[in-house]
Known about the structure:
- With 187 residues, the chain is an all-alpha fold.
- It has seven helices and no strands.
- It is 82% helix and 0% strand.
Amino acid sequence: MIYFALLFSFFKIGCFAFGGAYGAIPLIRDEVLSHNWLTDEMLSYIIAVSESSPGPIMVNLATYIGTIQGGILGAVIATFAVVLPSFIIILLITILLKTALQNQYVQAVIRGLKPCIIGIVLATGIYMTLNNCFGIISAITISLQSIIITIALVVSMFGYKKLKNRKLSPIMLIIIAAFLGIGIYSI
């Protein structure tokens, strides 16, 4: 039955596909050609479509091949099978990591890394803000639009915190920035 073949083949691909999706393409090619599901030329076209579609290539390939071979149910089975090994591995790592996080030495490392991460994120934010507002890398130019958007975002962030006593969601900041960008740069 095609569904069992899809399940077994894509589970096997998910288990042994090291090095990312491009490392999985030879495995997928071997499976697809050995089952005579597609011709080599058709598979090449599907690989091209998978690369240009949003999402992981391996998942896209599994979905497309599953759809061609078994319809919607085939797509669901192939997609589920190709991601199942990664899900199981992450689940096992999470279980092991949970016990490791209780270790005092691991806690000390995490406490030491927090300021570094905060510093890296802050430095990146400052660099991007200064570069976009004042053009630090190239000749110094002032972008009034970028300054207005930056000030509006800072005011929104701190104003919301002052009014609602909680932080403004990063998603809302992105949405506000998008609308400000559309409005200000289209003027």
